[in-house]
Description:
Layout: E1 2-3, E2 14-20, E3 23-24, E4 31-33, E5 40-42, E6 51-59, E7 65-67, E8 71-73, E9 84-90, E10 95-99, E11 104-107, E12 109-113, E13 117-122, E14 133-135, E15 140-143, E16 152-160, E17 163-181, E18 186-189, E19 194-197, E20 199-203, E21 207-212, E22 215-217, E23 223-226, E24 229-232, E25 241-249, E26 252-263, E27 265-268, E28 286-289, E29 293-295, E30 303-304, E31 307-308, E32 315-317, E33 320-323
Parallel strand pairs: 10-17, 18-26
Antiparallel strand pairs: 1-5, 2-3, 2-6, 4-5, 6-7, 6-8, 9-12, 11-15, 13-16, 14-15, 16-17, 17-20, 19-24, 21-22, 21-25, 23-24, 25-26, 27-29, 28-33, 30-31, 32-33
Amino acid sequence: MVLLCGPPAHSGELSYAWIFNEYPSYQDNRRFVSQETGNLYIAKVEKSDVGNYTCVVTNTVTNHKVLGPPTPLILRNDGVMGEYEPKIEVHFPETVPTAKGTTVKLECFALGNPVPTIIWKRADGKPIARKARRHKSNGILEIPNFQQEDAGLYECVAENSRGKNVARGQLTFYAQPNWIQKINDIHVAIEENVFWECKANGRPKPTYRWLKNGEPLLTRDRILIEQGTLNITIVNLSDAGMYQCVAENKHGVIFSNAELSVIAVGPDFSRTLLKRVTLVKVGGEVVIECKPKASPKPVYTWKKGRDILRENERYYLEIFLIID
Length: 324
């Protein structure tokens, strides 16, 4: 026996209950209220079930309740049925996409005489996770904190002495992108190279794209983009700006932001002055360091007086001068 609820137009999530002759109708192995449709299912109608039934619809956000019209249940003497095998009237969809970390509830209920028992199984033979809970005389299987290992083909088996019936459905796992590695602000000298890498997990596997100052960034000239990596060679001042790595799949999109600052500074000796006098023994070796602050890397020239020094067997020139 199925009593239809027919909820009114609404927004937000609803919960359902039934009133039997002005008292709450309790649920057991004979009675089941679907929280998907609101319908009341009675596996095997008995004389004690005769009376008026009213569907109660509650908005879970506002807690506002609406009562449907009373539905009379009359037991006809010529309508008494004998024993028959289970007929599953409430079953979950063939495919149930489930997000990582959420709670999934599967409904299953069967009519039959004798009253069928409900058993839940995994089709692959693995045990159902211990965290799973069964409610309403096994009519609901609830799996909290859904993870990849919970995905698979599930079976609801309804059985009595006259036979059994099976409903199956595939629980599939999906996850919005989640950052494993973000990009960070970076300061580089002009003409140096920049390498950024971002990584995200998710299911399906996320794809990546890059933005600069909110505009799409594509591979060209000095810029190479390969999925979650961005490589800029010989950086110039025009490369400075805000960059974003975008990871997305069909379930969500996430952004990681970082600023690229390009430093260009002329040679500055204020913090690394050369010694005015360096003492050295005749025939000894001397090292004179030259370390100005500069970006990009400067070209060094050494002079003795007004004469430019050239490398030879006595002079070695770079950022320091060696004389032996």
